[in-house]
Structures are given as C-alpha cells and as structure tokens.
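Suppose a colleague, Dr. K., hands you the sequence of a protein chain of 247 amino acids and asks what its three-dimensional shape might be. Before reaching for any lab equipment, you can write down a predicted structure in token form. Begin with the sequence itself:
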Amino acid sequence: MNESTEVPDTGPAPGSRRPGGRTARTRAAVRDAVLTGLAEHGYPSLTVEYLAEHSGVHKTTLYRRWGSVEGMVADALDLAGEDAWTPPDTGSLAGDLRALAHEVVDGFRDPADAAAPTAFVGAAFQSPRAAEALRAFYGERFRRCETVVTRAVGRGEAPVGTDAGAVVRAVSAPLFLRLFVTREAVDERLADQAADAALAAVTAGVFTEPTGRPDERPDGRPDGGPTGRPATTTGPSPATGPGPGQG
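The predicted structure, expressed as tokens, is then:
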C-alpha cells in the first residue's frame, strides 16, 4: 500500500536552504533506494516496505516525512536536481549543442544506467506528483543550458532575441522521442544530427520572435523580406565547430 492518511512533512520550501546532517543522510538513503527500486521493479511495484528495507529508514519515518511512495519518488527527483552539473563550454554554439546531445546519448547508452531515469519518465505518466517533479527537474536542467545560447548571441553566432529555452529543448527533443516514444536506440550520429538541426534553425532565425515589421529581420536588421526571415543566413555551419565525438 503506497498511500498514508498521515499528513507528510514536506520539508523546506523550494529554493530554501536544505537541512544537513542526519536529515540529509536520510534523504540520500531514500533517494538511492528509490533509484534502485525503480530500476529493478518500476514505479507500479515500488512499495514503502521495499524502500524501508533498502534505505534502512523505518516505515513510520517514511510515512511521516514523505507520506507515500509517490512523495519519495518526487523528492528523489528534487534531490537529483540539486547537483552541481553545468552545461558544456566548447567555445562555439555548434560544439556546445553537440556536447549536450552527446550527454543525452551517453546517459542512456548503458541499459543499467538508463533504467532509473527511464523509470522516472514512466512514473510521471502514472503519478501527478512525479510528473510535476520531472517537469521541475528538466526545467532546471534546461535553464542551466540556456547559457550556451546566451554566450552564442554574445559571440554573434545567434540572432539577438533567440529563445534559448526553445533551442536547448530542440536539441534533446528528437532524442527523447526515440528513447521514450518509439523506443529506438540512439547513437552519436543521431546526437550530431539533432544538434546540427537545432543549429541550422538558430541561424535561420526560427527561434527568434518576429518584430512585426515586414522590412526587418528577427534580429532587428533590415532586408529580411516579406516574411521577416533573413534572406541569407550567417554564422557557423551546422557541420563545423568542435564538439564531443568529432575527434
């Protein structure tokens, strides 16, 4: 039975200082048990009994702190989002986008490593709280990634006003489609293809909001033609630029 009538202790509000010491160790132990359980059994078969046994935390504490398996899964994702991961900085937008795409592929290459994150996605389809936590986790990841586009705009590799969030999502979207919808394998070639397609869209102004003036490009420069799109594109070619997997 995954639910409890007890009101869970939800802990500190998002963005506040996380407790340390014993509380932090307990959270980490439960998080590790959740990851193991999701990988071994999937969300539907995950129980409080399993998590108590594998975390070493008493069931009463689990119910009081998290309320249910659903709460523990959501908190495991929240804890995962508190890491110090930063996006790549290869010196070019082409290289950064390729590096991001390769990180997605590398993260799901080994079935053992991919089991837990895949189960998290599956749990999001069955649990509203898990779905909310997964959305928050990836939202934070994408916000961190936006800096690669911001740097590119500063270097003149992307038009001013480019939607950074849309760009970084466009890199991983075709890979996630294959991983979670069509259940196809992904590799370095597909990673490069996804990154290069996103880069081509960036240089074409696809991710730039139109100004509303037919005589301006999305980046504010004239001679954009009747659609507001640039007649010609400038910037790095999708096939060039340093990036992981190219050497």
